[in-house]
Structure to design on (413 residues):
């Protein structure tokens, strides 16, 4: 029996994956469930397990290749089918390598958005993948909207893939496009696939989402005292001391429950209610900014949030996040307070309605009963998508959160 090994789809919007490395190699014996390769998508890096037991053969993709989802990149042959002394290469010649598609409607969708070109992948059948011009989904959409031919745009991505920035350069006219093409490769900073996709998505958000920003300085005395009070008990139960981010996840989740519009998403031209509260935490890694998600945050204790956050950050830094770790977020928190930042504006993470930027806690002079006093305060900045939530509703949510930060006693147990 021969089993195909394909480039898997790990997300609904994934078109391609990058083969980072082969854990097993041509001719190696593999066992079903054993990791055989490591791939990178636009969100995560994942080890892919063997889907059969046998000998790994017919490898057609090299490390670093960006490959369309569904393409067969190797095969696993039962050892009983191998003849004594038969070389893996002779098996390769006898095997038919063709990409597998998950569904016919997906095939048609990919074909409609593709440009007829020769497939760079050996054995690809005629149709969707053979016609797929290497390009990011956003680049294809921009090119289609501007009636530009992707085949005529020089790509700056892996294997010459066309990125959104390449399409935008072409849209700006021949002079800018020519200058972009002539830029020295030596000046480019090597970035991961995740970084490229992050850049495209943030560009799309900043240029298409009607942002507005609300800022509020809040007294953090209660928050600091609560962290001091419950820190030891949480540490004893969860094995770690909660951070201010952990406390804020709990408070934000409670505020979102009371103001569900801030927990909404803008999808297909209308705001959609999210029944669950899944809070993403922006984490800077060497590869890119990632946003792992703490699911059902409103139902978790501070200790459970701290433990989950610790696990996610460890996996993020090790490049071991799974698709479920980074999907389904309904609201995002980004905290730069640990870097001494007082306040900043964050970019909304579509399709979410809003994102909260958190600055450092610092002693500042404030008015207390009409007299100057020094208090620890923090600045909370809410960036919101005006299509999903208006200023009044966003202000109500921020006021609710400010009240919880200043008087957190009833929630942070």
């Amino acid at each position: 029996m021969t089993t195909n090994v394909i480039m898997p789809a790990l997300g609904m919007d994934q078109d391609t994956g990058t083969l980072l490395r082969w854990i097993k190699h041509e001719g190696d014996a593999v066992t079903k469930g054993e990791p055989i390769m490591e791939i990178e998508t636009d969100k995560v890096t994942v080890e892919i397990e063997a889907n059969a037991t046998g000998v790994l053969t017919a490898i057609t993709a090299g490390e670093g290749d960006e490959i369309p989802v569904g393409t067969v990149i190797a095969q696993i042959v039962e050892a009983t089918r191998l003849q004594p002394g038969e070389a893996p290469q002779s098996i390769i010649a006898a095997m038919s390598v063709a990409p597998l598609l998950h569904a016919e409607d997906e095939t048609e969708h990919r074909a409609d958005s593709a440009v007829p070109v020769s497939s760079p992948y050996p054995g690809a059948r005629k149709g969707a993948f053979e016609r797929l011009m290497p390009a990011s989904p956003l680049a294809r959409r921009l090119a289609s909207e501007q009636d530009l031919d992707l085949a005529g745009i020089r790509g700056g991505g892996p294997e010459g893939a066309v990125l959104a920035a390449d399409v935008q350069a072409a849209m700006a006219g021949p002079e800018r496009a020519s200058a972009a093409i002539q830029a020295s490769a030596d000046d480019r900073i090597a970035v991961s696939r995740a970084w490229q996709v992050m850049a495209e998505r943030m560009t799309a958000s900043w240029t298409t989402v009607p942002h507005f920003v609300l800022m509020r300085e809040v007294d953090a005395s209660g928050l600091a005292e609560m962290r001091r009070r419950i820190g030891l008990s949480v540490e004893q139960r969860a094995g770690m001391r909660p951070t201010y981010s952990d406390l804020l996840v709990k408070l934000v989740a409670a505020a979102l429950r009371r103001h569900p519009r801030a927990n909404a998403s803008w999808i297909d031209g209308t705001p959609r209610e999210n029944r669950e509260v899944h809070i993403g935490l922006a984490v800077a890694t060497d590869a890119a900014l990632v946003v792992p998600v703490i699911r059902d945050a409103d139902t978790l204790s501070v200790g459970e949030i701290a433990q989950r956050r610790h696990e996610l950050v460890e996996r993020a830094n090790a490049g071991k996040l799974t698709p479920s770790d980074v999907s389904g977020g309904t609201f995002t928190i980004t905290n730069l307070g640990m870097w001494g930042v007082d306040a900043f504006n964050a970019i909304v993470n579509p399709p979410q309605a809003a994102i909260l930027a958190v600055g450092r806690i610092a002693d500042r002079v404030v008015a207390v009963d009409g007299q100057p006093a020094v208090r620890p305060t923090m600045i909370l900045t809410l960036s919101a998508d005006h299509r999903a939530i208006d200023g009044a509703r966003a202000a109500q949510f921020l006021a609710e959160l400010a009240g919880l930060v200043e008087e957190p006693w009833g929630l942070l147990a």
